[in-house]
Structure formats: structure tokens, C-alpha cells
């Protein structure tokens, strides 16, 4: 399912316009992105938690040349599923 499918499904099931649903989804994504960029986490009880994690630096290898390259430390987004979500997909 892509974003358009999600918007269409939500609009259909809830009697809303696609434009309204798209506005809400874009707002939600913007707020999550902003919170994560500030180092905060977004917790939706039962669904899951969006957070950032530190990925430590390491030495990698260029697959074409075999040369060692340094990969610096980075911060990456992560999602941890909540119990209700885990139960729903079993």
C-alpha cells in the first residue's frame, strides 16, 4: 500500500474527502519528522513509537574495489511496534 492507497482507503471508510485525509496525513508526517529532528520521540499507545537511534561509526568495504572506507556515526529513524499492533498482525 502506498500513500495514495492509504488516503483513498481512509476517505472511503470514514466518509471524508481525499483532500482532508491527505491534509491530515501530511500534517502527521510533518509533526513526526519535526519531533525526530529535535531528538524527541513520538509515542502512540498501542500502535508504536517513532524515535531516533545512534548508529556507531564503522569500517566498511567498497564492493567494487575492496578498499576500506570509514562510515561515520549517524542518527537514524526507528520504529518500535506496540503490543496492540503486534497482536493484530499475528
Automatic annotation (TrEMBL):
GO BP annotation list: chromosome condensation; DNA replication initiation; gene expression
The entry's keywords: DNA condensation, DNA-binding
Keyword Transport: no
Cellular component GO terms, alphabetical: cytosol; DnaA-HU complex; HU-DNA complex
GO molecular function, one term: structural constituent of chromatin
Record SUPFAM superfamilies: IHF-like DNA-binding proteins
Annotated organism of origin: Paenibacillus montaniterrae
Lineage: Bacteria, Bacillati, Bacillota, Bacilli, Bacillales
Protein name, per record: DNA-binding protein HU
CDD domains: HU
Underlying gene: hup_2
Record carries keyword DNA-binding: yes
Gene3D superfamilies on file: IHF-like DNA-binding proteins
Family: Belongs to the bacterial histone-like protein family.
